[in-house]
Amino acid sequence: MWAKFYRSAYDILPKQKLFDKSMRKRREQIFFAKAIFDEREIKAVVDCLKDGWLGTGKITESFERRFAKYIGMPYASLVNSGSSANLLAVRALKLPEGSKVLTCAAGFPSTLSPIWHSHLQIVAVDLDLKSLNIDLDRVEQALMKHKDIKAIIFAHTLGNPVDMKRVMHLASKFKLQIIEDNCDGLGSEIYGKKTGSFGNFSTCSFYASHHMTLAGAGGIVLSRTKKSAFRVKSLKEWGKEQVTIGYDRDHGVYFDSKSNGVPYDHRYSYPEVGYNFKVPEIMAAFGLVQMDRLEDFYKHRRKNFKYLESKLSKFGDFFHFIEVLPEANPSWFNFPITLRDKAPFNRKDLVEFLENNKIRTRLFFAGNILRQAGFKSMPVDLVGGLETADKIHRDSFLLGVHPSQTKEMLDYMVDAIEEFIKTHK
């Protein structure tokens, strides 16, 4: 019965069709991102369902141990999204209300918004046009100006590693706690270590478009110390006094806590206000199989990125391309393109041309986050201008490099860009 189900479930998965390379006769769209899975993930999920335990349990615990070891951090806590992971990491800093936290003004909103949600003061700087990462010269200026900054949170943008030797030096000099937002960068390395293994905390996203997925969603917080890891788990589970992984094997009631002077079960004692960011077991089961595929995923992402880079480099008069430190080995999330100021066309026209020819694109996340309507009124201490953030807000977009893309698809993307440029010089 179950074998028949596995086959039936696998049969309904969408298959990538071949397409006519003619620019005007294309039948299938080129997706910006695509999750890759097959009967192995389906079997793992069905086996989990057959086991009968659906809530967070032993499979989740197994995934957390394996992922923490893989990244090179002592502790991990699986949550429902990368955005939730960032919020928990900032809350787990346990900073007094109003404390200053430094971040980049450009990128995805949930790198910056957890600072505001946690009632902390945002100090923001620009990004660097070459790397598209937080500008470390501006970071140093901010730390010199605001000597009471307590922490820094930043992304390894699109999988391009930040110079972590310099970050660690600044953190030591100014006594900073570090949160690495590694949601774009799973598998990236710098100075021989994986991104996400340097800071006090790091986070990762398992949304469907990312390097791997937990059946379409998921995130994780990695912690340096046992104490901070416990705080993350407590906040993840409503702010519990004590956190038990999985089901209680003793099936007891433990009156070892007190609530308002009344003896109380510690599993229902809440010393602070937290969240419900738990995940079902089936997500961890799916994720364990995905981890077996990671090296292959990375290989294809790097190969696809390198191919686009080699083919599009001839258009350097029109585009800025991302630059990488010699000590870094990125695991690419996407391929970014930023129009030069002298380009004889604008982003809107180019992106619309690509989309009309069934090439799916994305903008550079929120661009300059502080220009977004929901963020304009936030109290933010800016150090320096935001010229680069404004430029990527206006001129940058992203192409996919996911593992299911073929050489034919990549060539089609390059041909489309070349055709557009020929008609807009």
UniProtKB/TrEMBL annotation:
Gene3D superfamilies: Aspartate Aminotransferase, domain 1, Type I PLP-dependent aspartate aminotransferase-like (Major domain). Transmembrane segments: none annotated. GO terms for molecular function: pyridoxal phosphate binding; transaminase activity. Keywords: Pyridoxal phosphate. Belongs to the DegT/DnrJ/EryC1 family. PANTHER family: DTDP-4-AMINO-4,6-DIDEOXYGALACTOSE TRANSAMINASE, TRANSAMINASE. This is Lipopolysaccharide biosynthesis protein RfbH. It comes from Candidatus Roizmanbacteria bacterium RIFCSPHIGHO2_12_FULL_33_9.
